[in-house]
Amino acid sequence: MTVPTKPTSSAQADALGALGADLHAPVIDWFEENARDLPWRRAEAGSWGVMVSEFMLQQTPVNRVLPVYEQWLARWPRPADLAAEAPGEAVRAWGRLGYPRRALRLHGAAVAITERHGGDVPAEHAQLLALPGIGEYTAAAVASFAYGQRHAVLDTNVRRVFARAASGVQYPPNATTAAERKLARALLPDDERTASLWAAASMELGALICTAKNESCVRCPIASRCAWRLAGKPAHEGPPRRGQTYAGTDRQVRGRLLAVLREAVAPVPQSVLDRVWEEPVQRARALDGLVADGLAEPLAGGLYRLPLA
DNA sequence: TAGCCGTGGAG
DNA sequence: TCTCCAAGGCT
């Protein structure tokens, strides 16, 4: 007598399991034929290379990450190498990738790895999650891509693929829902090897084929099973997905201020920073924000620089 | 949890 | 020109 291993007897869960089984092979086969040759996918990248790439790829396109990634790994081939530097050097090397707090967090993660993990990127999901700048997605991605573990890796690409293929809608919800996590787990292959391939493959499918706009169903390996396509590709319903305005925001001002600090070799006088933005209240708020975030360091005499510690 | 946090390319 | 979007995390 075999005892059921599934915690639920839900027919829906069984149906999803069956759907997953139908999708795995075509998506993984497609991936092995069409995957981009990205440096962090090569064996030589190692777990540190994978982790660095994941930080840089948070909200930043692959093409822009590539050159910075190469320089970063050449300069800091191990976590301890980065940990030995001032955090401001990480911010400087980050260049114009955007969201420079990621650079600070990556530096902080390198310090923590050096202090708590003997200089090796931890393999356990919980330990990864405890590092600064690593959330649910990145922890799963590093554990899966660097260590071949079985995790539901839910990024914006995968969420879109699942929304379409399984749920039959054009776009996933704004924020990741419990239902999405459940779906991702239900679709996850049982064995580690296949699961980690599936994670990378489903993500690549979303990045290259099942894109947000101008999706290419004719090249999609699971078009014949896609619920959204079979339903006639109905347009997104509900509230418009909020767009981010940028011009005139504090973010723009912060960006300008930090650009000056990044390019300066010596501490910068307040008067120089003042030139980047006309409106004084917003300008001051932005600068204060950078200091509060640890991205800028105020010195005596109204001077500012990237953080030394 | 909704809002904040950069930047630049594509259509 | 303008809108949308790109391997999220944090509070």
From TrEMBL:
EC code: 3.2.2.31
Pfam families: HHH, HhH-GPD
Domain HhH-GPD: 56-208
EC class of the enzyme, as a word: hydrolase
UniProt entry tagged with the keyword Flavoprotein: no
CDD domains: ENDO3c (cd00056)
The keyword Protein biosynthesis is assigned to this record: no
A biological process term (GO) from this entry: base-excision repair
A molecular function GO annotation: metal ion binding
InterPro entries in alphabetical order: DNA_glycosylase (IPR011257), Endonuclease-III-like_CS2 (IPR004036), HhH-GPD_domain (IPR003265), HhH_base_excis_C (IPR023170), HhH_motif (IPR000445), MIG/MutY (IPR044298)
Keywords from the UniProt entry: 4Fe-4S, DNA damage, DNA repair, Glycosidase, Hydrolase, Iron, Iron-sulfur, Metal-binding
Catalytic activity, reaction form: Hydrolyzes free adenine bases from 7,8-dihydro-8-oxoguanine:adenine mismatched double-stranded DNA, leaving an apurinic site
SUPFAM superfamilies: DNA-glycosylase
Cofactor or coenzyme needed: [4Fe-4S] cluster
Family affiliation: Belongs to the Nth/MutY family.
Protein name: Adenine DNA glycosylase
Protein's organism: Streptomyces fructofermentans
